UniProtKB/TrEMBL annotation:
EC number of the protein: 6.3.3.1
Homology family: Belongs to the AIR synthase family.
InterPro entries on file: PurM-like_C_dom, PurM-like_C_sf, PurM-like_N, PurM-like_N_sf, PurM_cligase
Native source species: Kaistella jeonii
Major localization listed first in the record, in broad terms: cytoplasm
Leader sequence segment: none
Pathway(s) annotated for this protein in UniProt: Purine metabolism; IMP biosynthesis via de novo pathway; 5-amino-1-(5-phospho-D-ribosyl)imidazole from N(2)-formyl-N(1)-(5-phospho-D-ribosyl)glycinamide: step 2/2
Subcellular location: Cytoplasm
One Gene Ontology term, aspect cellular component: cytosol
UniProt entry keywords in alphabetical sequence: ATP-binding, Cytoplasm, Ligase, Nucleotide-binding, Purine biosynthesis
Reactions catalysed, as given in the entry: 2-formamido-N(1)-(5-O-phospho-beta-D-ribosyl)acetamidine + ATP = 5-amino-1-(5-phospho-beta-D-ribosyl)imidazole + ADP + phosphate + H(+)
Full protein name: Phosphoribosylformylglycinamidine cyclo-ligase
Pfam families: AIRS (PF00586), AIRS_C (PF02769)
């Protein structure tokens, strides 16, 4: 009997099935700027209507949150997470997401699982007016065990050069406003899984995995609602490293973001994790978003407008002089 690619562990037919399951839904994310369909060697996206456009790109993955999804056999939120981790980064610079590409690797491809993951990306792209224009599915026996998957993505956005937000306009007296997270998002799950080894245990009346797999919040709509009304000085996406590491990334030299931790609305599941794992509070703030998914820094005169525009936004601090860039009080 001669050797075949399938005998080596790669089933091309399952890949074709995956494409068949997703191609119609993926095409629904396309607009007039997408010049070709799935199947080409490269994806074409036309840019028009900008005076001095700057492309802003970001790439990220879902991390070990995937383990929770795979063990719980619940895959619909993972694609949302993958898109959100990329798109939420570029939004920090005032960019509008244009298009997204994904990379899905596994030991043995199951078209049902792969399609469910991609359909989450489709949903997220639609919510962000972004086109899913391509991707790669890699079946890699020997590298991944059967049942294992890894998911990553790449997002490109656009912003006029004179509208780029980079934190350089932040000054003393600016207010720091929090946009709540939807939970852990996609960070810190190696520690989460260590403290919560049983994803099926009951937490607040439902299986814990439902809370852990809450999709990462998409911030395009609220952020651009704000940007249509006022000039924003800085935006920070609170991901790995938490508040402690991410807010300083946008703070200019000799200024300090003073955060009043008593104002932060910490999700109950994070308080339970902290208690059960006997984790120091500063370790929590340096690992998890602690309920703050995005931070907007704006002039004091505009702070009230932001709070009125975004129903669940709330103030957590202000910018003062200082060398440390962030201080939790």
């Amino acid at each position: 009997m001669s050797n075949t690619y399938k005998s080596a562990g790669v089933d091309k037919e399952e890949g074709y099935k995956t494409v068949d399951k997703i191609k119609t839904a993926v095409s629904e994310t396309h607009n007039a700027n997408v010049l070709n369909n799935l199947g080409s060697f490269g994806a074409f996206y036309e840019i028009a209507g900008y005076k001095n456009p700057v492309l802003v790109s970001g790439t990220d993955g879902v991390g070990t949150k995937l383990k929770v999804a795979l063990d719980s056999k619940k895959y619909d939120s993972i694609g949302v997470d993958c898109f959100a981790m990329c798109a939420n980064d570029i939004i920090c610079h005032g960019a509008k997401p244009l298009f997204f590409l994904d990379y899905l690797a596994c030991g043995k491809l199951d078209s049902e699982i792969a399609a469910e993951i991609v359909m989450g990306m489709v949903k997220a792209c639609k919510d962000n007016n972004c086109a899913l224009i391509g991707g790669e599915t890699a079946e890699m026996p020997g590298m991944y065990k059967p049942g294992d998957y890894d998911v990553a993505g790449f997002c490109v956005g656009i912003v006029e050069k004179d509208q780029i937000i980079d934190g350089s306009n932040i000054k003393k007296g600016c207010k720091i406003i929090a946009l709540p997270s939807s939970g852990f998002h996609s960070n810190g799950f190696s520690l989460v899984r260590k403290i919560f080894p049983d994803f099926n245990e009951e937490f607040e009346g439902k299986p814990l995995y439902e809370t852990l797999l809450e999709p990462t919040r998409l911030y395009y709509q609220p952020i651009h609602k704000i940007l249509e009304e006022i000039d924003v000085c800085g935006i920070a996406h609170i991901t790995g490293g938490g508040i402690i590491e991410n807010i300083p990334r946008i703070i200019p030299e000799n200024l300090c973001a003073t955060i009043e931790v008593s104002k932060i609305k910490i999700p109950s599941v994070m308080l339970e994790l902290e208690k059960r794992g006997n984790i120091d509070r500063m370790e929590m703030y340096g690992t998890f978003n602690m309920g703050v998914g995005m931070v907007v820094v704006t002039d004091e005169e505009h702070a009230e407008k932001v709070l009125n525009l975004i129903e669940d936004a709330y103030e957590i601090g202000e910018i003062n002089e200082g060398a440390e860039k962030i201080k939790l009080i």
